[in-house]
Amino acid sequence: MRLLVIEDNREILANVADYLTGQGHLVDCAENGPGGLHLALTEAYDLIVLDIGLPGMDGYAVCTRLRDAGCSIPIIMLTARDALDDRLHGLKSGADDYLVKPFALAELAARIEAVLRRSGGHARQLRVGDLVLDADSLRVERAGQSLKLNPTCLKILELLMRKSPATVRREALEEALWGDSPPSSDSLRSHMHLLRQIVDKPFPEPLLHTMHGIGYRLGKGDHGA
Ligand code: CA
User: Fold this and answer.
1) 160 CA distance to ligand 1 centroid (A)?
2) pTM for the predicted model, two decimal places
């Protein structure tokens, strides 16, 4: 799994990163709020470990900004405080779980596993802004309205939602859809056009963005380009 650890205490950061790397994860690190937020919005992670007290922007703000951007990556918050208010605040700002410092590394690893398992490593219900895809029933809704997609559009949407708000390269989409032999060089473009008609056109805010020369991304606003 690819993990991002955002923690300003270098000793804790190094310990956590070493431990998780030793467990076979790929670990990226950030030591402040804005740096962590930027990484989370531009790279594709499976889970984020997020400290609350951070320079630049605290963990609650990072979490809120990520969720507002339509990012559904599981987040485990680290807090030095055990006050009920802090925990509620963390969960309210969109965290999936929290861990009170000081914690044993083995406990963090267990929480990570549990959160990933809960989300299937692969969330069953994907959500980007007001767009929701249930990966089991393959039902798609936006703003409570049910949307009908053909199987190819559905697959594209699922791929983009799983990586949101990161950009998915054209080649990666084509490969996932058609393997080594896309039906024609314009096939992806026409499916994206169709997808946009259904998912974005009837709604005030566009979620599907074309990153010219690179690929596509799903999310609110234009960041993450
Ligand atoms: Ca801190």
Assistant:
1) 32
2) 0.61
